[in-house]
Amino acid sequence: xxxxxxxxxxxxxxxxxxxxxxxxxxxxxxxxxxxxxxxxxxxxxxxxxxxxxxxxxxxxxxxxxxxxxxxxxxxxxxxxxxxxxxxxxxxxxxxxxxxxxxxxxxxxxxxxxxxxxxxxxxxxxxxxxxxxxxxx
Amino acid sequence: xxxxxxxxxxxxxxxxxxxxxxxxxxxxxxxxxxxxxxxxxxxxxxxxxxxxxxxxxxxxxxxxxxxxxxxxxxxxxxxxxxxxxxxxxxxxxxxxxxxxxxxxxxxxxxxxxxxxxxxxxxxxxxxxxxxxxxxx
Amino acid sequence: xxxxxxxxxxxxxxxxxxxxxxxxxxxxxxxxxxxxxxxxxxxxxxxxxxxxxxxxxxxxxxxxxxxxxxxxxxxxxxxxxxxxxxxxxxxxxxxxxxxxxxxxxxxxxxxxxxxxxxxxxxxxxxxxxxxxxxxx
Amino acid sequence: xxxxxxxxxxxxxxxxxxxxxxxxxxxxxxxxxxxxxxxxxxxxxxxxxxxxxxxxxxxxxxxxxxxxxxxxxxxxxxxxxxxxxxxxxxxxxxxxxxxxxxxxxxxxxxxxxxxxxxxxxxxxxxxxxxxxxxxx
Lengths: 136, 136, 136, 136
Hints:
The structure is a homotetramer. Chain A has helices at residues 24-39, 44-50, 119-122, 124-132, and strands spanning 3-8, 56-63, 72-82, 86-95, 98-108. By secondary structure, chain A is an alpha+beta fold. Chain A has a single domain (3-132), classed as Thiol Ester Dehydrase, Chain A, CATH 3.10.129. The longest helix of chain A is centred in the first third of the chain and has 16 residues, at 24-39. Chain A is elongated and about 45 Å long. The relative contact order of chain A is 0.22. Chains in contact: A-B, A-C, A-D, B-C, B-D, C-D. Chain A binds chain D through residues 17, 22-24, 26-27, 30, 53, 55-63, and chain D through 17, 22-24, 26-27, 30, 53, 55-63. Strand 2 of chain A pairs antiparallel with strand 2 of chain D, so a sheet runs across the interface.
């Protein structure tokens, strides 16, 4: 499965080249990821309640084509890999049918003491949901 | 007295009009204010130690001329008014001799319980310093 | 009439106080204004085609209560005043029923040579639409 | 050789986790790169005069440790690889002696028609300067 999220490019997200500044795609990825976690039932409030955070460990971003205001960037998220302590997501961002950016992000889960969490063991239902979005 | 602070406009602060996006001047004001408080001896760490915050209550901003990357925006800060529970600052932002923006900000001081602080009574030395920068 | 626009506060719009950074409200206002112009038929492409821009001349912003991720900020826009060469908008931003911010913005219209445009004369239909949103 | 650039983390660059939002490191990289190009004599104005742009094609970013306001992030830039049509830079970002982020960026050079430029042939002096900063 693929999780899809739309971001309307805002005027203030463009730069003097007339295109979306490349740093903003990192923010579109975060919006999409947060929206995805909400969708599968492990949104912000629930994770906070559980005392579990999931910081960004690494990012890759390949810029294919520019986008600009007032484009709608459609972000398609899939789970790229699930390891005991880490998870990675991949993102394909499109304007219409044109791919403007592909990207990945790597995350861990940590508890309130900063210790890494074996999320698949502690949250088997979350792991099951995530597996549905695993990239083939 | 006048407190002066320089902000180098960054490429990512411009928009597709080719100029500094107007929302960024609000950030230049914050940078200047924080730099000013540091200069007069009541910087971030000290205020945090004292358990005192000073949220922004209001902003006004008059955009006179555009600026852009790679301009240096020189911000001149003065204290506009000191009331028992509130303080306001005024800002003149220039590129070279050209005024690009004039602005004001209004703040209160609150303790860790969110209660307003009579800052002139509690911090007479701070009040004295602030008075040196009062606009004539 | 009132034009209403929703902005979902993003995680990256918060600051270390745990609330929406105050500079972002200026951006919510722009989003709302652009959405409004689109709604009344004078959106970005049309204005660009007409060779008419409408820069921000001034902003005022009164911060009433904090908002934070993942609040939805509902922005209510009205036309505050229509002068021959200038127009001002007012904004009431709410989270649920709580007003978090009230604001105004002042604009002019300029043609591609940078000359001010008497927008009510040149675009009578636009003026008529704008009048429908005039604050009583 | 290594090009060094300092970025003072601003309050508005933090998020509600209390740390520098990860998207901002992409901006620190741009600031450093622009500062570097200026230093070696091929700054913004000169490149614009030459009609040559150098868009970002790809980014990688490894987040090692958090930084926050009011840290000073010191960015060390080196040239990672020089190909006929592409160039990559690598960045080590530190707070004091602690590495907070390592990153790379990939760029091409294009002329005003959008055609790729063999920068080492067209600008042999630039190529020579760049080689001085090649990572061993």
